[in-house]
């Protein structure tokens, strides 16, 4: 009897152990399944990670007197509002040359430049000979830019050739405007040995011309910028014609543009001057990925209403139909991807 009791107890213990092991196995399987499901969900989520840092970028524009500064500030706000993880700020600069230098050195993420200047920089032409900025990439064209030369109506200056021996504002020293001014003078056989060159920004040049301190000023700005409108409203300043074939043959980045009479006060005849485009650029040194540039380009052009009213010239000229105008350097792959998604054809030689 005692032997039977002992045997019975042993059997019960064995059965209990079997149930415990089964329960433990079930718990481990459930835990394993739960872990597997979590890992699977994690894998699915990692396919489209959200930026966890906040990248702060700067957009180089131009002086505050023109349309480019407010345009850049407004575009920066659009980027901040619509691109996750990126905050942008528009900054007033000396424009084309300073912006390209900052892009090349990785000090800036985006910046505007006149179309011929950024092409010269990329290709190592002119002032960039031996120091090509092969890292520069275009994003899109914005507003038109015009090479304008103003003098006073009674100055006796009727053409660019008449600037010989005169005091002329060339724009800010080292700017894209000064580079364009030198190119213009060279076609007429002029240089700094044959004129009295002064280096002033648009506003200071306009004031100096109005006050009779200089004989003429060269400006590379949109039509009817604040300073130029003030100049032509406050005195008898007139726009000179630049219609010689020699200039357009030497500098094909420019096209002829007829400025209708009345565009500026006191200018009652049509005038032909050179036109190009202002290009928004970036660099492969900027710290922006292809995806970043794609999202930035998308945000800007799908929310154009947020920045287009920043200036009259921006509203009229920075339009979808001209987004690729006058670009003569590679376009960033992120921008290419967006434009091709929207049905634009990008020439193979511009895919960067």
Short structural description:
This protein is α/β, with parallel strands linked by helices. It has helices spanning 2-46, 68-82, 96-104, 115-123, 176-187, 202-210, 226-234, 245-250, 290-302, 312-317, 333-341; strands at 55-60, 86-91, 110-114, 136-152, 167-169, 196-198, 216-221, 237-239, 255-259, 271-283. The protein is 40% helix and 19% strand.
Provide an overview of this structure:
The structure is a single chain. The chain has eleven helices and ten strands. It is an alpha/beta fold and about 350 residues long. Strands 1, 2, 3, 4, 5, 6, 7, 8, 9 and 10 form a ten-stranded mixed beta sheet that branches.
Helical content stands at 40-55%
Low-pLDDT sequence parts: 1-49
Structural class: alpha/beta
Order of helices and strands: HEHEHEHEEHEHEHEHEEHHH
Shape: globular
Largest sheet: 10 strands, mixed
| Integer average pLDDT | 87
Query: How many DSSP E strands?
Result: 10
Report the end-to-end length measured between terminal Cα atoms: 95 Å
Rounded to the nearest angstrom, the radius of gyration is 32 Å
**Number of separate helices:** 11
Strand content: 15-25%
What is the subunit arrangement here?
A: single chain
């Amino acid at each position: 009897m005692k032997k039977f009791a002992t045997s019975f107890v042993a059997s019960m213990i064995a059965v209990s152990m079997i149930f415990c092991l089964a329960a433990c196995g079930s718990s481990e399987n459930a835990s394993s399944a739960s872990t597997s499901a979590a890992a699977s969900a994690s894998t699915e989520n990692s396919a489209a990670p959200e930026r966890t840092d906040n990248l702060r970028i700067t957009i180089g524009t131009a002086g505050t007197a023109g349309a480019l500064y407010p345009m850049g500030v407004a575009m920066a706000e659009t980027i901040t509002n619509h691109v996750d993880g990126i905050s942008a700020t528009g900054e007033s600069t000396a424009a084309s040359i300073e912006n390209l230098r900052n892009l090349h050195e990785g000090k800036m993420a985006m910046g505007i430049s006149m179309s011929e200047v950024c092409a010269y920089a990329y290709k190592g032409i002119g002032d960039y000979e031996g120091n090509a900025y092969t890292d520069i990439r275009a994003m899109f064209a914005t507003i038109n830019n015009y090479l304008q030369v103003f003098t006073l109506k009674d100055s006796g200056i009727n053409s660019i050739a008449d600037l010989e021996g005169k005091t002329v504002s060339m724009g800010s020293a080292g700017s894209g405007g000064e580079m364009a001014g030198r190119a213009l003078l060279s076609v007429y056989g002029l240089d700094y040995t044959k004129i009295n060159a002064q280096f002033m920004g648009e506003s200071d040049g306009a004031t100096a011309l109005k006050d009779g301190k200089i004989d003429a000023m060269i400006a590379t700005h949109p039509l009817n910028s604040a300073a130029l409108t003030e100049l032509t409203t406050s005195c008898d300043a007139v726009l000179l014609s630049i219609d010689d074939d020699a200039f357009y043959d030497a500098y094909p980045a420019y096209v002829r543009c007829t400025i209708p009479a009345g565009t500026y006060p006191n200018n009652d005849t049509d005038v032909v001057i050179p036109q190009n485009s202002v290009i928004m650029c970036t660099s492969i040194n900027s710290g922006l990925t292809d995806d970043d540039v794609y999202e930035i380009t998308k945000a800007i052009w799908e929310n154009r209403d947020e920045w287009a009213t920043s200036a009259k010239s921006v509203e009229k000229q920075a339009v979808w139909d001209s987004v690729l105008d006058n670009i003569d350097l590679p376009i960033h792959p992120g921008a290419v991807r967006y434009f091709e998604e929207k049905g634009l054809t990008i020439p193979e030689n511009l895919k960067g």
